Amino acid sequence: MSRKVVLITGASSGLRELITYEYAKLGAHLAIIARNKPESRLEQVAHGARELGSPDVLFMFADVSKVDECRMFVDETAKHFGRCVVGNT
């Protein structure tokens, strides 16, 4: 079975944080992103996802409403994992 790579935007809080944890429990490899670095809990979410079973979590800060930053997120994810399989916006 191929490994699943899930991209989740806005993963530092709310429903998308919970979605991150659910995918982690399923053993998905995760690429998570949040916009605001100083206020973000994204690193804590990444740690929690690893504890719940995600074998690899890539996290970064960017504003996906900006084309260049969105492209950077997808490109870095593809570089890190070798591909992108599942996306969530």
Instruction: Calculate the terminal CA-CA distance, rounded to whole Å.
Output: 25 Å
Count of β-strands: 4
Q: What would CATH call the architecture?
A: 3-Layer(aba) Sandwich
Number of domains: 1
Roughly what fraction of the amino acids lie in strands? 15-25%
* Form type: globular
Query: What is the topology, as strand order, of the major beta sheet?
Result: 3-2-1-4
Q: Would you give the CATH topology?
A: Rossmann fold
Low-confidence stretches: none
Descriptive labels:
89 residues, alpha/beta, Rossmann fold, 43% helix
Summarize the structure.
The chain is α/β, with parallel strands linked by helices. The chain is 43% helix and 21% strand.
Describe the structure.
- The protein has 89 residues and is of the alpha/beta class.
- It has a single domain, classed as 3-Layer(aba) Sandwich (Rossmann fold).
- 43% of the residues lie in helices and 21% in strands.
- It contains 3 helices and 4 strands; from the N terminus they run βαβαβαβ.
- The chain has helices at residues 14-25, 42-52, 67-81, and strands at 5-9, 29-34, 57-61, 86-88.
- The protein has a 4-stranded parallel sheet, with helices on both faces.
- α1 (14-25) packs parallel to α2 (42-52).
